[in-house]
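#dry-run=false #mode=assembly
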Amino acid sequence: MRAAAPALVAFMFLAAMPLLAEFWGGSYVTGLIMRAMILAIAALSLDLLIGTCGLVSFGHAAFLGIGAYTAGIAITEGTTDLATILGITIGISVLFALVTGAISLRTHGVTFIMITLAFGQMLFFTFSALSEYGGDDGLTLWERAYAYGLFEFEHGLFYTIFGLLVAIWLLLDRLRQSRFGRVLLAAKENSTRMETLGYGVFGYRLTAYVIAGVIAGIAGALTANEAEFVSPALSAWQRSGDLIIVVVLGGVGRRSGPVLGALAFVVLEEGLSSLTHDWRLIFGPLLIFIVLFAKGGLASLFERRQA
Amino acid sequence: MSVLLATHGLCKSFGALTVTDDVSLELRTGECHALIGPNGAGKTSFVNQLSGLLAPDSGRIEFLGQDITNSSPAARANAGLARTFQITSIIPTMTLFENVALAAQARCGSSYRFFRPVHKDRQINALAGEALERIALTSRNDKLARTLSHGEKRALELAMAIAQKPRALLLDEPMAGIGSDESGQLTDTLLMLKQDYPLLLIEHDMDAVFKVADRVSVLVYGRIIASGTPDEIRANREARTAYLGDET
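#status=ok
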């Protein structure tokens, strides 16, 4: 329970955000927080790979691109029904994860990092080549998906994203403590032993890879609706790197890690970039500082204070 | 006594080094078959081929009448062939109990279950508890496996193997690194295990081997040079010069 507390506090804070924004910041702040929440969803899915499976994927943003372009292209072509868009997103994410996972999961360590990076870049260049849908420049959406009136409410989109974030957090939290989660965690430490105990580790990892891909795909579809703009940069390797940074910043394999990491990342990015254009010059050392002095990321800082 | 596990003309080389040279060996129900031999004789390589971690160059492996030569390690484990490792192989970051529960979980239906908390799973916990009771490790269930003493880790491996509900056990030097005070206790454990499981025992500790084994095979340079009852092996000249030392 203790490890989950920072996330639960963060959720309460997020739930109250639209109200707080009335007094300060308005739609600028709610927009920022929506981006942070979407980033948190993507980071949660990546931490299923890094924290639970020990698989550092450097191409996870590919799934963000899949979700975003599915939504972008569907809406441009006049299919605005949210359930349809999410259905297609999930379908394509499953397929892409099965194919790329089946290949990349046969490798380990640095090779796995490189091969996921390659798949991510393949998708990046594919999106860049979609000249009909903006090519390099990206695609501006003229409307959001139709969510049965939900998005027409004030803060409808905000609470949809918030609800999905909480649901996905709960889902992955349960998964980590399930039979399936225990197999993944043990295989991270000693996969040979798991094989000789009777577990086909590859199948478990591929399943986890698909689950992570689907969740990141959903985050991508949400991004398209929040920003009303889709660009190839969403699936570029820099974005995959950002996701890894969020996971490390928050604390790898920590229950509250990805949520705290995403909030901190977006706030820091926004805060520092308002100070200077070269905000990463400050962000970099800060990240090194956190990695060095708080090995378990931000989540461990909170946990230690409570202990 | 029927044959449970058998190899037929098993061969394996790494380049010019032959580690398994035409090995045909049987493990029958109810027996303990010990495989002894000097360091580098190819004992562990042989067990690795039996458990599927190493593919033989030629020859066949049969288990319960099925050809398992090309089966995955997981498939062999699920068929009932459990093993322990010479160099302790456990999940260091999990507790003692969780390690045994992992072994038990593989016998308790599908692990593709995503929602129910596994630590509350009665079926798994009962099977793990049973195995732990038999190996008498019950006192320190919540200790992290990596903090256990060497002797406890060896015992934990045995508990994990039992929790797999195996049809046959491959024990790769269960006594490795164990002091003389603990080895007596471990020998008793092996005698107890023998009541319930056919054992293929690889061991350096000759006292233990001659106490537990019904049959002994001597492996030298990947080749079985002698096979027989413990008394026959003691009397065998070739086996004595190769391994036991002439002074015995």
